[in-house]
Design brief:
14 strands; alpha+beta; 10% strand; isomerase; four-stranded mixed beta sheet; nucleus; three-stranded antiparallel beta sheet; DNA-binding; 47% helix; 567 residues
Length: 567
DNA sequence: TCTCAAACTTAGCAGTTTGAGT
DNA sequence: ACTCAAACTGCTAAGTTTGAGA
């Protein structure tokens, strides 16, 4: 009702059109004239009748009979309803039969004279089968999951992540991939290597086929592997994130990051010292490490040219990817980064850096072509070797994990207001999460329907605002009239205010999230114990932060962390 | 030291399901 | 009951890291 009778001022699109077009203002509608011009495309019709497959038969008087499409269509309507009791009622049957006969050819009409002699059961079965088919597919998927989706590892039944072999198809790749369009070929049993324990019941290859190999390597975690034909790399079937083996690894990862926390000051001092080193390789290493630490860049392995899209990370950044500004927007020593990173996602950032870094960058860029490596004396293995010496288990990506987690913790501290209600606290959480996603450059394409859905939300908010002022006015009137029972009116105002707040929070959250993907950091970079502790501290149900899958993945953390966990 | 294979984590997207709001 | 957006899931590409072998 609301929507239909909404006055034009609620409809933003209409309002804009009227503003844009002065003629509108001149128009007057009188004497019952509703409009002067109307144009549209008309309605969309129901799809035409698709005749039944020839093996689905209609029987009359016990004999199969081919119906004309018109008669058949009407017959299918009856057949689809056959299970309902009303199809046994005389009136229903009488009306149906009368109307059905109208659709028949004269031959059919001559033969089909008695509804009692009609047998629709074959047709009915067909439709039942069709709707069952959907259910069957679901059930079959469930059965396959139960049979192939689990394994036994060390006395536990563990979920497998990707137990289906990747189907053949045309390779797309991300970004400007030189191999896009190539055929990804079908994987056969003779391509497959099975890994399982010697004393287990080995999986059987399909009849008449053989596995490439069955091995028993308990130093690795994969169950199945094959070589993919596009890049020639190996693909694996491994366990689900909820499994012990993945959970422990995840925990270990965050523990390493926490160890970095203890010595990060030392390491930072060290690389700052190294900016002054006499040796070029050490300076380059130190500047690269500074970027990895400050900007959460990825290590940046070198890649084989022509095999993959041209993307870079820290160590593989080229001269053409950065610009130096001794001064920009009132800030000194500004570096502008612009390159394609993992998945061909653009990294664009303009940041002030320390003077020494800036001077070093100028030095590194001297006498180089745009497509030369910025860090020509550095690669990931040199960098990681150095990091290994600074701390046991330290690699470039630990900095990403560390900086992501520490940022979440610090942002949560800063943004959470204990007075807030639950939705407002969750907004704070999302904002903290967002800060991390921005740091790690986790982007997404704006959802296809973003603009529209934002508009819809705005319409809702406008309507809610009006509703609120109406409710307030009513309250005022009732106070003015000295009505004592205005409690319900007060409550109404309060309720609407809350609803409005919620909508506004939602709009803010959505707008801020337009191009940012929160999932990746949540799943891979943020120590879940920080979130668990935060939930406990502020009485937020963990379900508000983690869905079922995530709770399974982070079961170890939910078990482990109490409210004063410190990363 | 370099190269390459292997193993494992991280990543965004498309399609589907769920659920909130009316 | 219905609609639309949000949430979720599956998928698999694209990274990082390690270590063996030349």
């Amino acid at each position: 009702e609301d929507e239909f009778y909404q006055s034009p001022r609620h409809d933003k699109s209409l309002k804009r059109e009227r503003d844009d077009d002065n003629e509108w203002e001149e128009e007057r509608y009188t004497d019952g004239v509703k409009w002067k011009f109307l144009e549209h495309k008309g309605p969309v019709f129901a799809p035409p009748y698709d005749p039944l497959p020839s093996n689905v038969k209609f029987y009359y008087d016990g004999k199969p009979m081919k119906l004309s499409p018109e008669a058949e269509e009407v017959a299918t309507f009856f057949a689809k309803m056959l299970d309902h009791e009303y199809t046994t009622k005389d009136i229903f049957r009488k009306n149906f039969f009368k109307d059905w006969r109208k659709e028949m050819t004269s031959e059919e009409k001559a033969i089909i004279t008695d509804l009692k002699k009609c047998n629709f059961s074959d047709m009915s079965e067909y439709f039942k089968a069709q709707s069952e088919a959907r259910k069957k597919i679901k059930e079959e998927n469930e059965r396959i999951l139960q049979e192939y989706g689990f394994c036994i590892m060390d006395n536990h039944r563990e979920r497998i992540a990707n137990f289906r072999i990747e189907p053949p198809g045309l390779f797309r790749g991300r970004g400007d991939h030189p191999k896009m369009g190539m055929l990804k070929r079908r994987i056969r049993p003779q391509d497959i290597i099975i890994n399982c324990s010697k004393d287990s019941k080995h999986p059987e290859p399909p009849p008449g086929t053989k596995w490439k190999e069955v091995r028993h390597d308990n130093k690795v975690t994969w169950l199945v592997s094959w070589t993919e034909n596009i890049q020639g790399s190996i693909k694996y079937i491994m366990l689900n994130p909820s499994s012990r083996i993945k959970g422990e690894k995840d925990w270990q990862k965050y523990e390493t990051a926490r160890r970095l926390k203890k010595c990060v000051d030392r390491i930072r001092n060290q690389y700052r010292e190294d900016w002054k080193s006499k040796e070029m390789r050490i300076r380059q290493r130190a500047v690269a490490l500074y970027f990895i630490d400050k900007l959460a860049l990825r290590a940046g392995n070198e890649k084989e040219e022509g095999e993959t899209a041209d993307t870079v990370g820290c160590c593989s950044v080229r001269v053409e990817h950065i610009k130096l500004y001794p001064e920009s927007d009132g800030q000194e020593y500004v570096v502008e980064f612009d390159f394609l990173g993992k998945d061909s996602i653009r990294y664009y950032n303009k940041v002030p850096v320390e003077k020494r870094v800036f001077k070093n960058l100028q030095l590194f860029m001297e006498n180089k072509e745009p497509d030369d490596d910025l860090f020509d004396r550095l690669n990931t293995s040199i960098l990681n070797k150095h990091l290994q010496e600074l701390m046991d288990g330290l690699t470039a990506k630990v900095f990403r994990t560390y900086n992501a987690s520490i940022t979440l913790q610090q942002q949560l501290k800063q943004l959470t207001n204990s007075e807030d209600n639950v939705p407002a606290k969750i907004l704070s959480y999302n904002r903290a999460n967002r800060a991390v996603a921005i740091l790690c450059n986790h982007q997404r394409a704006p959802p296809k329907t973003f603009e529209k859905s934002m508009q819809n939300l705005q319409t809702k908010i406008d309507a809610k605002r009006d509703q609120l002022s109406d409710a307030k006015r009513e309250l005022k009137i009732s106070i003015y009239l000295g009505q004592i029972n205005n409690i319900s009116k007060k409550k109404a105002v309060q309720r609407i205010e809350e609803q409005l707040m919620k909508l506004e929070v939602q709009a803010t959250d959505r707008e801020e999230n337009k191009q940012i993907a929160l999932g990746t950091s949540k799943l891979n970079y943020l120590d879940p114990r920080i979130s668990v502790a935060w939930c406990k501290k502020f009485g937020i149900p963990i379900e508000k932060i983690y869905n079922k899958t995530q709770r399974e993945k982070f079961a170890w953390a939910i078990d482990m962390a109490d409210e004063d966990f410190e990363f």
